[in-house]
Write a structure and sequence with these properties.
Helices cover about 75% and strands about 0% of the residues of chain A. Chain A is mostly helical. Classes of the chains: A mainly alpha, B alpha+beta.
C-alpha cells in the first residue's frame, strides 16, 4: 500500500513538469503583446513598453523565460501579477473559495444525483424513473449560464431567498445557490450512471444470493447494491471535481464569486504568464491528489481490490 | 423516502441563506432622518484595480475610481466637467507656457503629513522618469526636460519656490495644461510613500475626501472599503459616511445586485438590460453622453485611401453609414451619433462645425462620391474593419459592414482579432492592413485631448499616421491662446480640416448608463461617467 502511494506520488513530478511547460508555452504563444494591452486604446510610448517588458522578462526567449519561472518556483517564488500582487497571495485567496464551491457542488451531486439514480434504478421503468429521465435530460440540455441567470433572477431577485451575488469572504451559505447551479451540469450524468450501475448490480449473482439467504431489502439495497454500484459513480465524481474547479468560470462570473475560474480567465486575457501557470499547476496537483484518493477509496468500496506493493 | 429528505435539506439550506441575507442588510440603523444619514455607507460597483494604487501608474477605470476618491489634486471636475480648485489656491500664467501654482495652506494627508509643493513635484518627477515606466508617464510629456530616450530623475521644468508654491515650465505653450491637473496622474504623494512605494500602492495614503478603512481595506478581487477622511478640507465634502466599492467580474452581476438591493449605485448596465432598465428604475436611472468617442481609423497608407481618391472614398463611407439606426438598434440607446470629433460633455463642443454634414446619412450622395473615386482609380478588394472579438464590438462592426455593402455596393466585413492585446499590438506595430476600430476616452475635459494625441503629426496615439501641417498649426495656435474660448475656436477650425480629411470615420459617443436604489439620493454622474460619490446621500 505505502509503496503504491509513493509510486503514484513520484508520477506527479513528470506530469507537473510537462503541464507547466505546455501551459507556459501556450500562453507564450498567444499572439499580441500583453504590455501593449495594458494601455487600453491609447498607444504607449515604445520606451515605456520596453522597460515593462524587461521587468516581466517578456523580452527574453521563451526557454529562458520558462527556466527563470521554474527556478523561481523551486525557490518558492510564484512571481507577481501585473497588479503587483504576489501570485501566491492570489492563490491563497481564490483557491479556498473555489474549493468550497466545488465541494458543496459535489455534495449536492452526491446527495441528489445518487439518490435519484438509485431510486430510478430500483424502480426501472416506473413513473419516477421516467420523470427523473425527463428532468435530467432538461437540465443537461439547458446551458449552465441560462440555469445560472434564471436561478439568480427567480430565487435571489424575485423571491429574495439568497443574495444575488456572493458577498465578501464567500461564506458557505452564500455559495449554496452557485453550487446548486454548478451541480446541474453534472446532475444528469450522475443520475444515469448510478441508475445503470444499480440495474447492472441488481442482476448480479451475489445480490440474488443475498436475497435467497433471506436478507431484507433494507440491507440488500445499501450494502450490496449501492456500495457495489458506486465505483463508476465515484470515479466520475473525482473527474468531475476537477472539471468543477476549472469549469466554474461561468458560474463564478454570474454570481461574482471571487474564485479561481474568474481569476484565471482574466489572467489569460491579460497574458499574465506566471499567474496562469501557477494556477494551472495547482489545479493539476489537486486533480492528481483527488484521483489518488479515489483509487485508494476503491478498496473501501470493493474489498476485492487490493493494491500490491 | 430519500427525495423528501433531500427536500428538507434544500429548504433548510435556503432558510440558512435567507437568514444570512437579512443579517447582512439590516446593518447599522443609527440616524433616522429623511434627508439621509451622514454616516451611511454607499455601496457601488467597481472592478479590481489592474495595478497597485499609485496615481501615475493607474490608467484604467477600476483603479481611477478609487484614486479619485482618496486623493485630491490641484483641481477637480464638477458635474459639468468644469475645473474647480481643490488643493490649488491659484494656477496662474501669462503665456500659457510658464505656470505658477500655489497650494492652499494647512492641507494634510490622512496620516497628518502636510501637502506641500514637494508632494506634487516629487510625485510628478517619479511619474515622468523613464526608468519607472509608469503607465501614465505620457502626461508629463509637455513639461520641459521630459524624455522618452534617457532617464530624467528630476525635470528642469518643475521648480519648487517655497513650501506652498511651485513653478511649471512647459516646452511649448499649452493653454489646456491647467485643465489636465485634475487627472489622477497629477495627484500628490506624501513623503512616506517614498520609503516603499510598492507597499504604499497596497495601502495608499491620500489627501482626498475618503481614505482606506485601515490597513488591508483593499480586499483583492472582492472590494475596497473607504471611509470619510476627517482631515480633508476641500470642496468635495462627503455627505455620506463612506464608500464600499465592490469589484464585479461582469456587468450582469452588478445589475443583479442592484435589483436585489445589495448595491446602491451602479454606473454600468449590462447589454441584456439596456432596453429595460429605464422603465424599471425610472427617475433613478441615467442615460447621458460620456466623454467617449468611437470611430474607425483608415490609415492613409492603405491603397485607395490617400490623395483625392482617398478623400472621396472616406466621405462616401461616412455618408453611407446610418449612425442613428445603429445606435438605436444595436446599442439600444447606449450610444448617440456623433456630430464632431470630441464629445458633447466637453466645453467648446459644437454641432455646427462646417463640414460636419459628412456625418449625415445619405446613400445616394455616398454612391455618387464612391463613383467619382472609382473614376480616378477603380476599387478592388474587400473593405474590412479590424476589431478585438473580446470586447463586444462584433455587432456594430457587422452592422456598419452591412450598410457599406448595401449603400456602396462593395464587399465589406469585419476582421476580428481574438484578444484585445493582439489587436492593439497589431495596431501599434502597424502590422494591420485594414481599417480598424478606434476609440478615445478623454483623460480630462478639454477639446484638445480628443484632437492632439490622436491626429497630431507624430502624436502618441496617432495610429493612422495622419499628418496635416495646417491641422498641426491650428492646434499649436489654439494651445498658445490663454483664453479658453479663443483656444476652442482654433480647435473647432482644426476639426473642419478633420471633416475634410476624415483620418477616422466618427461613429458615436458612448453614453453612461447607470441606476441607483431607493435608499440613495443626489446621484449625479460626472463628465467621466463616474458618479460624484461625495454628494450622494443615503437614508437608513
Amino acid at each position: 500500500m505505502a509503496g503504491y502511494i509513493v509510486r503514484r506520488l513520484l508520477q506527479v513530478i513528470p506530469v507537473l513538469l510537462g503541464t507547466t511547460f505546455l501551459i507556459y508555452f501556450m500562453v507564450f504563444a498567444m499572439p499580441g503583446d500583453p504590455v501593449v494591452g495594458l494601455f487600453g486604446d491609447k498607444t504607449p510610448p515604445p520606451a515605456v513598453v520596453e522597460e515593462l517588458r524587461a521587468r516581466y522578462n517578456l523580452d527574453k526567449p521563451f526557454i529562458v523565460q520558462y527556466l527563470l519561472f521554474l527556478g523561481n518556483i523551486l525557490r518558492g517564488d510564484l512571481g507577481v501579477s501585473f497588479s503587483g500582487q504576489p501570485v501566491a497571495d492570489i492563490l491563497a485567496q481564490t483557491f479556498p473559495v473555489t474549493l468550497r464551491l466545488a465541494m458543496l457542488s459535489v455534495f449536492f451531486l452526491m446527495v441528489a444525483g445518487i439518490s435519484v439514480g438509485l431510486v430510478s434504478g430500483l424502480r426501472k421503468g416506473g413513473i419516477f424513473d421516467a420523470s427523473a429521465l425527463v428532468v435530467s435530460l432538461m437540465l443537461i440540455s439547458v446551458p449552465i449560464f441560462v440555469v445560472g441567470f434564471v436561478a439568480q433572477y427567480v430565487f435571489a431577485i424575485q423571491l429574495g431567498w439568497f443574495r444575488p451575488t456572493v458577498g465578501f469572504g464567500a461564506p458557505w451559505s452564500e455559495l449554496v445557490l452557485p453550487a446548486l447551479v454548478l451541480a446541474t451540469g453534472s446532475f444528469a450524468q450522475i443520475v444515469r450512471l448510478t441508475r445503470s450501475s444499480v440495474i447492472e448490480t441488481e442482476g448480479q449473482d451475489f445480490v440474488r444470493t443475498a436475497a435467497s439467504k433471506g436478507l431484507s431489502r433494507r440491507r440488500i439495497v445499501p450494502v450490496h447494491i449501492l456500495r457495489n454500484s458506486l465505483i463508476p459513480v465515484v470515479t466520475y465524481l473525482a473527474v468531475d471535481f476537477g472539471v468543477l474547479m476549472v469549469g466554474a468560470v461561468i458560474t463564478e462570473g454570474i454570481f461574482n464569486v471571487p474564485g479561481v475560474g474568474r481569476t484565471v480567465y482574466q489572467a489569460i486575457i491579460r497574458g499574465e504568464n506566471p499567474t496562469v501557470v501557477a494556477f494551472v499547476t495547482i489545479m493539476v496537483l489537486i486533480y492528481l491528489v483527488v484521483n489518488l484518493l479515489i483509487d485508494l477509496f476503491y478498496a473501501v468500496l470493493d474489498p476485492r481490490i487490493r493494491y500490491a506493493k | 423516502m430519500k427525495i423528501k429528505r433531500i427536500g428538507v435539506v434544500a429548504i433548510a439550506l435556503a432558510a440558512a441563506g435567507a437568514l444570512t441575507l437579512s443579517g447582512c442588510t439590516s446593518g447599522d440603523t443609527g440616524a433616522t432622518d429623511e434627508s439621509g444619514s451622514s454616516t451611511a455607507i454607499i455601496t457601488t460597483n467597481g472592478s479590481e484595480p489592474q495595478n497597485p494604487l499609485i496615481p501615475t501608474n493607474t490608467n484604467e477605470v477600476g483603479g481611477g475610481k478609487i484614486l479619485d476618491s482618496i486623493f485630491a489634486g490641484l483641481i477637480f471636475y464638477d458635474a459639468d466637467g468644469a475645473p474647480v480648485n481643490d488643493m490649488a489656491e491659484s494656477i496662474e500664467t501669462e503665456d500659457a507656457q510658464h505656470y505658477t501654482i500655489k497650494i492652499k495652506a494647512d492641507q494634510t494627508f490622512s496620516n497628518g503629513e502636510p501637502v506641500t509643493a514637494n508632494s506634487f513635484v516629487d510625485a510628478w518627477n517619479y511619474g515622468a522618469a523613464l526608468d519607472n515606466a509608469q503607465l501614465s508617464s505620457y502626461f508629463f510629456e509637455s513639461i520641459e526636460g521630459f524624455s522618452y530616450d534617457v532617464n530624467v530623475p528630476e525635470l528642469p521644468g518643475l521648480v519648487v519656490v517655497d513650501d506652498l508654491t511651485f513653478e511649471v515650465t512647459l516646452s511649448q505653450p499649452e493653454s489646456d495644461f491647467p485643465l489636465r491637473l485634475g487627472y489622477s496622474a497629477f495627484f500628490p504623494l506624501p513623503e512616506s510613500a517614498w520609503e516603499d512605494l510598492e507597499a504604499f500602492g497596497e495601502n495608499p495614503i491620500g489627501n482626498g475626501p475618503y481614505m482606506l478603512d485601515g490597513e488591508g481595506a483593499w480586499k483583492h478581487n472582492e472590494k475596497i472599503d473607504l471611509v470619510v477622511n476627517p482631515d480633508y478640507q476641500g470642496p468635495r465634502q462627503p455627505a455620506n459616511g463612506g464608500l464600499d466599492i465592490i469589484f464585479y467580474a461582469t456587468q450582469d452581476a452588478s445589475y443583479a445586485d442592484l435589483q436585489g438591493g445589495n448595491v446602491d449605485v451602479v454606473d454600468q448596465i449590462p447589454p441584456s438590460a439596456l432596453g429595460t432598465y429605464e422603465d424599471e428604475f425610472g427617475d433613478r436611472s441615467v442615460n447621458q453622453a460620456a466623454a467617449i468617442f468611437q470611430s474607425f481609423t483608415i490609415p492613409a497608407r492603405l491603397p485607395h485611401f490617400s490623395g483625392e481618391e482617398g478623400e472621396l472614398r472616406r466621405a462616401a463611407i461616412s455618408k453611407a453609414i446610418n449612425r442613428e439606426e445603429i445606435t438605436d438598434v444595436i446599442f439600444e440607446g447606449a450610444a448617440t451619433a456623433t456630430h464632431d470629433f470630441t464629445s458633447p460633455v466637453i466645453d467648446g463642443y459644437s454641432e455646427e462645425i462646417p463640414g460636419s454634414d459628412v456625418l449625415d446619412f445619405d446613400a445616394d450622395a455616398a454612391k455618387d462620391l464612391w463613383a467619382q473615386a472609382d473614376a480616378i482609380a477603380p476599387w478592388t478588394g474587400t473593405f474590412q474593419i479590424g476589431y478585438n472579438a473580446d470586447g463586444g464590438h462584433q455587432a456594430w462592426v457587422d452592422a456598419v459592414a452591412n450598410q457599406l455593402k448595401n449603400n456602396l455596393g462593395i464587399e465589406a466585413s469585419g476582421n476580428p482579432f481574438p484578444t484585445f492585446a493582439e489587436f492593439r499590438t497589431s495596431v501599434t506595430d502597424r502590422a494591420i492592413q485594414t481599417p480598424f476600430r478606434s476609440g478615445w476616452q478623454a483623460d480630462y475635459p478639454a477639446l484638445f485631448n480628443f484632437l492632439g494625441p490622436i491626429y497630431g503629426t507624430g502624436a502618441g496615439s496617432n495610429d493612422g499616421d495622419y499628418s496635416n501641417p495646417e491641422f498641426d498649426t491650428l492646434l499649436t495656435e489654439g494651445l498658445a491662446e490663454t483664453e479658453i474660448d479663443a483656444a476652442n475656436e482654433k480647435f473647432q477650425q482644426a476639426q473642419e480640416i478633420l471633416f475634410k480629411d476624415l483620418p477616422a470615420i466618427p461613429l458615436w459617443y458612448r453614453t453612461v448608463n447607470g441606476a441607483w436604489s431607493e435608499q440613495v439620493e443626489n446621484v449625479q454622474y460626472g463628465w467621466n461617467s463616474v458618479p460624484l460619490y461625495y454628494q450622494i446621500t443615503k437614508s437608513e
